[in-house]
User: Which sequence fits this backbone?
């Protein structure tokens, strides 16, 4: 939230001063709730709070005869202060302390790493921790996860868990690393059933990410809240430090008709909300991949379909796992050149190229039929049903560039064997007329048989450019040639 400044030199009622202080407190609380943006948010709020204090001092010292003055000298802690001003100053100090504490939340893990206080790292989660959707799977050659009878996931797939594993191995080789992710498990079912058999005892630093499967295993938010809190408290009791994480969004919360997915009682939005609430309540650090993915989608205009499974699954795909690692690096302060978010933040915005059969692509096929953020190539053969309506009625390659904002989408058509290039832009969902982009040359006998109106042709026999207008070829003087 944006904190308003207090006008100086104006007799301001203390009630107004209370509002400014409450706004500052609210900003601090928000910074605590959303630890994923704590660094920038807390610093901004702290600066605003300091400005508020200066201005509030002046406003209060200017005097206030409101009957509320006496009541406002009593703080929310039931302590009676000498004056309302003193109460405000004391509460301001509390806000500042809270903001300063929040400003270091995301970096405690890095501080512990750098000071040599981390001896082991354990990941506790479901199939997104295993890396399903990005090549992750149980590896029978790896160690068993407690007494579950399930082995640790492979360590070669390109997923967030292995990116973190490799980072630790390179920079802190003495630290042990174990992935206790188990596909299909949840806090509601297996978390309550297996407990310490799953997360173990005498852990050092644990990352916990559950909730995706709890959408179906828990029936209500309250039930999930009870279960996830119970589970994480168990991890906490058997660990020195922990960070709780919310998994990314999924494409199966709702079907195409807007109906909640089969077998689901909760959505990932509800899961994220509950986890955030539990973390605030217990003072646990929290990273929300859910919110960060939505943030990334909004800022980059990259659809979630390019990051998540679209086959009804609940997992990220390779690009989504890479995004998770980049988010984690920023949140933990582990930014390194190889995966530096700031230098690679737009890498997923690069247009993807695909080639498809052009047999069903007509000259009138609207832009909405093509995939967003893709360059698509279609071959238009001589026997294509609509070849006569492509430039000059000749076979060629149709290149469709559909950007996220369709105002910039266009098609280019390159005629086979000729190298002639034509281009057209979209108009609403239809297309404008084709315009030739390249110079067409040849002798008189080889003039195009189906030229576009306005087309220029350099006739080498006549040694001059001619133009196709009103169904005939004309030179620059308007003479038929």
Assistant:
């Amino acid at each position: 939230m944006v904190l308003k400044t207090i006008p100086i030199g104006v007799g301001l009622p203390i009630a107004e001063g209370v509002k400014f202080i409450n706004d500052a407190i609210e900003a601090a609380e928000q910074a605590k709730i959303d630890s994923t943006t704590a660094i920038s948010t807390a610093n901004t709020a702290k600066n605003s709070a300091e400005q508020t204090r200066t201005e509030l001092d002046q406003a209060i010292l200017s005097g206030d005869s409101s009957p509320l003055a006496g009541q406002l000298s009593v703080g929310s802690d039931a302590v009676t202060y000498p004056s309302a001003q003193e109460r405000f100053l004391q509460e301001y100090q509390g806000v500042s302390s809270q903001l300063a504490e929040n400003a270091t939340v995301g970096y405690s893990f890095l501080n512990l790493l750098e000071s040599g206080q981390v001896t082991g790292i354990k990941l506790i989660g479901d199939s997104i921790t295993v890396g399903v959707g990005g090549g992750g799977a149980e590896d029978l050659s790896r160690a068993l996860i407690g007494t579950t009878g399930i082995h640790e996931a492979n360590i070669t797939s390109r997923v967030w868990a292995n990116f973190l594993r490799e980072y630790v191995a390179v920079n802190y080789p003495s630290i042990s690393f174990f992935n206790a992710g188990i596909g299909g498990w949840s806090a509601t079912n297996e978390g309550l059933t297996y407990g310490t058999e799953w997360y173990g005892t005498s852990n050092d630093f644990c990352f916990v990410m559950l909730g995706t499967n709890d959408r179906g295993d828990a029936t209500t938010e309250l039930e999930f809240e009870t279960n996830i809190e119970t589970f994480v408290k168990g991890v906490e009791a058997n660990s020195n430090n922990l960070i709780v994480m919310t998994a990314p969004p999924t494409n199966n919360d709702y079907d195409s008709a807007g109906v909640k997915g089969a077998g689901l009682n909760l959505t990932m939005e509800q899961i994220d909300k509950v986890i955030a609430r539990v973390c605030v309540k217990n003072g646990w650090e929290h990273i929300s991949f859910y919110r960060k993915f939505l943030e990334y989608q909004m800022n980059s205009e990259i659809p979630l379909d390019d990051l998540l499974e679209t086959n009804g699954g609940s997992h990220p795909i390779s690009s989504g796992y890479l995004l998770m690692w980049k988010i984690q690096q920023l949140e933990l302060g582990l930014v390194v050149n190889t995966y530096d978010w700031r230098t690679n933040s737009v890498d997923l915005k690069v247009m993807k190229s695909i080639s498809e059969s052009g047999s069903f692509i007509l000259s009138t096929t609207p832009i909405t039929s093509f995939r967003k953020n893709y360059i698509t190539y279609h071959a238009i053969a001589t026997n294509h049903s609509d070849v006569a309506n492509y430039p000059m009625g000749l076979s060629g390659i149709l290149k469709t560039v559909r950007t996220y904002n369709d105002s910039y989408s266009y098609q280019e058509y390159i005629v086979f064997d000729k190298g002639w290039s034509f281009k057209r832009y979209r108009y609403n969902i239809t297309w404008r007329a084709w315009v030739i982009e390249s110079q067409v040359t040849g002798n008189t006998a080889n003039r195009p048989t189906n030229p576009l109106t306005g087309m220029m042709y350099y006739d080498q026999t006549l040694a001059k450019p001619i133009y196709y207008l009103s169904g005939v070829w004309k030179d620059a003087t308007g003479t038929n040639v």
Q: What stands out?
A: The longest strand covers residues 239-246. The first helix runs from residue 14 to 33. The CA atoms of residues 126 and 153 lie 11 Å apart.
